């Protein structure tokens, strides 16, 4: 779900796009698209095209704020809509088991496979197809995969068997993941500074989480009033179809190298002269890029301690959103006898928490920018670990504390609002943590060209855990004990019967362990970055990079 920045080879500095949010080219680097004024390339017969000037109106950084916000609003709308398809089917678990004769046993919930395949599809599609999206461009790529996504709603609604539903959901989830990552690139494409990007980035992550959480409560009414799970997808088909013209007219191309490439292609056609952009000249062939896209995130994930721990922290938090689609039903149906569709409305508590969490991320961004005044590593630049100050507290209080509240108020003698408050606390913590990890990893790798791969690793981890973690929910909430029988007000405190309270408690302890990772980074983050061969520190070569270069020289 996290944002993606173009992923270039660090050994080829010339491949950086002029529209990179981390790079501002000096005035002398701009040349008019007239071949006589274009920059000379190593080959005398080829000219390299860049922007006309620092104020080139086609450069997305130079758009008016109104135009930037219109495009950003269109992008954020897509961010909210896509994930609704992911979890909305959760409220139809019983209907699926009845129609397709599948069984939800005490230890495994087979009805969750349509959601699991949706998330796993997202992990794989990002790795395989994202490099293609960089070539196609934001607008064309989004519209193509959005149209494919709409088409895949049809076989979900008409699925003749359970296998067909799972397979089509796999493709649908892959499309949504690509759309989300494409949309994420719009923000750094049009907003040049950290301060300008803070609000759009926070909104992007909040809306993606809200969309993932809002599916069950939004479509609970379908099961309540219509009772046919297929109508969930019929209604989605109408909604997504109506928004296609909205994206067609409002979503513009924001990727700078794509805009320049189209200029160069037009000039080559008009003049017959070899005019190219840096990206065209330096970009490796598609197959090597695909191999790099698949291998580099995995390599970074398992060799970079900061990235591995951050991914585990964020992935568990994000996966909890999907786990709640299973655990909330167990708790509220078991304790209060609620119908399946009524349980779907409880997810609204998580949404409320996520909205509160977004407001907290704004304060976190303020602390981050304020840290620049005390940065001795890169004077005037914010400290990357400042991203973690508020999120660490949110992890301990929101996720861990909320899980404990959710666990130990899950008794029939407590009103339903008590565990719902715990859910809201967890939702708040999830929003702050996922936002902080995305920002921190981007900042930590920003000075090198590995930020895209690092964020890709986080995104793949989040989608994988979101798909697999809830599969263990049935076993956890059964094997750790059954829910307690109804007790009288005088003796319920004296009798503790193991139940799904212990499953939620186990999740709280896992979150507690993971919450210590950012504490370590806050105190030792600079040391980790100095020793990493994939991060830059203070604009200087790090010890890890020096060692890597010495090894390369010896070879």
Automatic annotation (TrEMBL):
Pfam families to which the protein is assigned, alphabetical: MFS_1
Composition-biased stretches (Polar residues): 15-27
Family that this chain belongs to: Belongs to the major facilitator superfamily.
GO MF, one annotated term: transmembrane transporter activity
Keywords for the protein's UniProt record, in alphabetical order: Membrane, Transmembrane, Transmembrane helix
Main location per the UniProt record: membrane
Lineage of source species: Eukaryota, Fungi, Dikarya, Ascomycota, Pezizomycotina
Protein's name in the database: Major facilitator superfamily (MFS) profile domain-containing protein
Parts of the chain that traverse the membrane: 69-92, 112-133, 140-158, 164-187, 199-219, 231-251, 299-324, 344-365, 386-408, 414-438, 450-472, 492-523
Gene3D superfamilies: MFS general substrate transporter like domains (1.20.1250.20)
SUPFAM superfamilies with a match to the protein in the record: MFS general substrate transporter
Intracellular or extracellular location(s): Membrane
UniProt-annotated stretches for the region Disordered: 1-41
Membrane topology annotation: Multi-pass membrane protein
Domain (Major facilitator superfamily (MFS) profile): residue spans on this chain: 71-528
GO cellular component: plasma membrane
């Amino acid at each position: 779900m996290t944002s993606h920045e173009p992923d270039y080879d660090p050994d080829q500095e010339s491949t950086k796009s002029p529209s990179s949010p981390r790079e501002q080219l000096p005035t002398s680097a701009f040349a008019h698209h007239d071949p006589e004024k274009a920059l000379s390339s190593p080959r005398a017969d080829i000219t390299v095209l860049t922007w006309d000037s620092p104020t080139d109106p086609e450069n997305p950084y130079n758009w008016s704020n109104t135009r930037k916000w219109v495009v950003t609003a269109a992008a954020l709308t897509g961010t909210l809509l896509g994930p609704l398809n992911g979890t909305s089917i959760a409220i139809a678990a019983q209907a699926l088991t009845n129609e397709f004769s599948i069984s939800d046993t005490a230890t495994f919930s087979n009805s969750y496979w349509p959601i699991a395949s949706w998330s796993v599809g997202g992990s794989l599609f990002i790795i395989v197809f994202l490099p293609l999206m960089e070539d196609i461009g934001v607008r064309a790529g989004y519209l193509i995969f959005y149209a494919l996504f709409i088409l895949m709603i049809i076989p979900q609604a008409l699925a003749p068997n359970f296998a067909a539903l799972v397979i089509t959901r796999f493709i649908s989830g892959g499309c949504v993941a690509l759309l989300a990552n494409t949309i994420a690139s719009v923000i750094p494409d049009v907003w040049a500074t950290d301060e300008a990007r803070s609000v759009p980035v926070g909104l992007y992550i909040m809306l993606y989480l809200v969309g993932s959480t809002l599916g069950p409560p939004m479509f609970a009414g379908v099961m309540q009033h219509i009772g046919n799970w297929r109508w969930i997808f019929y209604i989605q088909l109408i909604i997504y179809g109506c928004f296609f013209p909205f994206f067609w007219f409002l979503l513009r191309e924001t990727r700078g190298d794509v805009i320049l490439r189209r200029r160069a292609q037009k000039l080559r056609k008009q003049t017959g002269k070899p005019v190219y952009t840096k990206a065209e000249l330096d970009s490796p062939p598609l197959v090597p890029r695909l191999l790099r896209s698949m291998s580099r995130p995995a390599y970074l994930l398992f060799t970079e301690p900061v990235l591995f721990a951050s991914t585990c922290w964020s992935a568990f938090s994000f996966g909890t959103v999907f786990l709640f689609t299973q655990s909330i039903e167990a708790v509220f149906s078991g304790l209060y006898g609620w119908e399946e569709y009524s349980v779907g409305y409880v997810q609204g508590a998580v949404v409320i928490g996520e909205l509160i969490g977004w407001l907290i991320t704004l304060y976190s961004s303020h602390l981050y920018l304020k840290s620049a005044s005390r940065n001795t590593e890169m004077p005037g630049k914010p400290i990357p670990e400042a991203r973690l100050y508020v999120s660490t507290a949110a992890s301990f209080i929101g996720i861990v504390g909320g899980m404990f509240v959710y666990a130990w108020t899950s008794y029939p003698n407590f009103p339903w609002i008590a565990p719902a408050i715990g859910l809201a606390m967890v939702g708040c913590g999830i929003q702050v943590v996922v936002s902080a990890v995305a920002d921190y990893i981007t900042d930590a790798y920003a000075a090198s060209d590995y930020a895209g791969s690092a964020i890709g690793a986080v995104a793949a981890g989040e989608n994988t855990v979101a798909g697999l973690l809830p599969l263990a929910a049935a076993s956890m909430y059964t094997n750790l004990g059954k829910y307690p029988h109804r007790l009288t007000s005088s003796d319920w405190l004296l009798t503790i019967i193991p139940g799904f309270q212990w499953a939620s408690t186990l999740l709280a302890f896992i979150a507690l362990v993971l919450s210590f990772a950012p504490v370590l980074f806050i105190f030792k983050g600079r040391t980790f970055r100095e020793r990493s061969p994939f991060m830059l520190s203070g604009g200087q070569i790090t010890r890890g990079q020096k060692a890597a270069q010495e090894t390369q020289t010896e070879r």
